[in-house]
């Protein structure tokens, strides 16, 4: 088989975080009873007139600036005409030749090196409704989503992305930026961030482009990466058979981990774009741009660099903890309160991430508040609880949401500070394990000490300080070796 190189372009749609829809006053929210947030404007009734949502325009300007784009001062809206049952007007208001943002870039890190991914355009449009196909031959339409402000971000051609890892890194970075600047909640599973990569392959070294396919319905980072990998292998197999790749849209079946043919794109659809006559051009002034720029929050790259210097975090930790605004805010609150940033990072990226993953939750929904996590770390630092107990405690905190000190008291999890109580336990462990004790004292097998420590730890249910146990075991061994 010839060696092929993937060529990947990314089209991402982000639903914008606004109170109302793009051109009417209907609420912009996810879910709810079908067709309860609709009005003549978002239903496309004759005679209804769109009114532009300024917050949505500013969210796109914010995104354009964060992605290093130039902002078109004469951006405008156009009608994209096509017929589909989820689009009641028969056209979508979008931006065609003068989008708000053009010629930007973002940097990704893959395998330890930085790569710049160029961005062709960032534009604003409205979302369509949603179709539900039920068993049999019936379909229903929910127009709550119709008219929700939607931003499209398209990478530059020729594409910079040449592997599924790079595509995933691009999406992770883009999602992080969008959540940091507060324009999108980034929830791929709810469809508020949607990604449609177009994928082609070519022999390594070639500078021509193969026929591309577009993959839809990818609702996780993993699905994006797997979908691209699957498509590359499938296309290579087709080419090796001497056949040609069909230009088409393909869906992603997550259960089968396969793409499947949805519809042919052999005939380029003619959208008959023309300027939207019901809206005036945007006319974005320099002063408006500067006002948005001046109010921009700290971006992920800047925060990552600050985490490395201010909290002495390793590069890896700083990158992980800045994947979303919520996560980095969580870390920063906990780190400041407990005074041990590395410990906070370890707990967040370790036990807490595992619990959230298992519960299918995001950090923003986590029942363990950053204040409680900090308190738990302090209980460890001041010796109130052992590291072993902390591992159990965090699970209990996750389930109950209760403050750690309260759980520790209720469960009797304080570290045993009473040497007398520990000595009694030690006495029993020594008596139960005469062979081990003899091995240590008479045959010099000092490594077997660890077994005794473990036995004491087990007898105290993890509530002893290993330092205390070690000290007391040493004392006892010395006494037995030399009873006089
Ligand atoms: Zn409406």
Arithmetic mean pLDDT: 93
- Helix and strand composition category: alpha+beta
Can you list the strand order of the major beta sheet? Answer: 2-5-6-9-1-10-11-12-13
Largest sheet: 9 strands, mixed
User: Uncertain runs with pLDDT below 50, 5 residues or more?
Assistant: none
Q: Can you describe what's shown?
A:
The chain is α+β, with helices and mostly antiparallel strands and 484 residues long. A nine-stranded mixed beta sheet has the order 2-5-6-9-1-10-11-12-13. Strands 4-3-14 form a three-stranded antiparallel beta sheet, with no helix packed on it. The chain contains 15 helices and 14 strands. It starts with a strand and ends with a helix. The protein folds into three domains: 4-288, no CATH class; 298-411, no CATH class; 419-481, Orthogonal Bundle (Arc Repressor Mutant, subunit A). The site of zinc ion has 8 residues, from loops.
Keywords summarizing the entry:
alpha+beta; binds zinc ion; Arc Repressor Mutant, subunit A; nine-stranded mixed β-sheet; 15 helices; 484 residues
């Amino acid at each position: 088989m010839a060696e092929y190189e993937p060529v990947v372009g990314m089209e991402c749609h982000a639903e914008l975080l606004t109170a109302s829809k793009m051109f009417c006053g209907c609420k912009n929210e996810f879910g709810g009873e079908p067709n309860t947030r609709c009005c003549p404007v978002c239903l496309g009734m004759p005679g209804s007139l769109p009114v532009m949502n300024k917050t949505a325009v500013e969210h796109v300007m914010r995104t354009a600036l964060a992605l290093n784009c130039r902002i078109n001062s004469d951006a405008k809206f156009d009608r994209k005409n096509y017929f589909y049952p989820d689009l009641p007007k028969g056209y979508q208001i979008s931006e065609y030749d003068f989008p708000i943002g053009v010629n930007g870039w973002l940097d990704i890190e893959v395998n330890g090196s930085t790569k710049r991914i160029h961005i062709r355009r960032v534009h604003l449009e409205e979302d369509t409704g949603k179709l539900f196909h039920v068993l049999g031959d019936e379909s229903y339409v929910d127009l709550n989503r119709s008219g929700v402000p939607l931003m499209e971000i398209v990478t530059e051609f020729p594409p910079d992305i040449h592997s599924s890892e790079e595509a995933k890194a691009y999406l992770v970075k883009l999602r992080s930026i969008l959540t940091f600047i507060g324009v999108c909640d980034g929830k791929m599973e709810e469809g508020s961030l949607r990604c449609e990569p177009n994928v082609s392959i070519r022999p390594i070294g070639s500078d021509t482009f193969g026929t591309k396919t577009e993959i839809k319905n990818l609702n996780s980072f993993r699905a994006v990466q797997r979908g691209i990998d699957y498509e590359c292998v499938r296309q290579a197999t087709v080419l090796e058979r001497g056949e040609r790749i069909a230009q088409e849209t393909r869906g992603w079946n997550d259960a089968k981990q396969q793409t499947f043919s949805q519809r042919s794109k052999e005939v380029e659809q003619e959208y008959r774009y023309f300027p939207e006559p019901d809206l005036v051009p945007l006319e974005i002034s320099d002063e408006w741009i500067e006002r948005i720029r001046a109010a921009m929050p700290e971006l992920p790259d800047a925060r990552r660099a600050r985490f490395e210097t201010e909290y002495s975090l390793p590069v890896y930790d700083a990158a992980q903890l800045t994947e979303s605004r919520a996560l980095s805010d969580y870390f920063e609150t906990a780190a400041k309160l407990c005074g041990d940033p590395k410990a906070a990072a370890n707990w967040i990226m370790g036990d807490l991430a595992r619990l959230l993953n298992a519960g299918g939750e995001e950090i923003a929904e986590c029942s363990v508040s950053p204040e409680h996590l900090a308190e738990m770390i302090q209980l460890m630092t001041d010796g109130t609880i052992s590291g072993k107990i902390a591992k159990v405690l965090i699970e209990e905190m996750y389930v109950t949401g209760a403050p750690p000190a309260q759980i520790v008291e209720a469960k009797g999890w304080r570290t045993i500070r009473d040497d007398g109580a520990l000595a009694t336990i030690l006495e029993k462990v020594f008596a139960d394990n005469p062979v081990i004790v003899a091995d240590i004292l008479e045959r010099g097998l000092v490594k077997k000490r660890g077994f005794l420590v473990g036995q004491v730890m087990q007898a105290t249910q993890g509530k002893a300080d290993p330092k205390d146990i070690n000290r007391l075991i040493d004392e006892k061994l010395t006494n037995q070796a030399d009873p006089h």
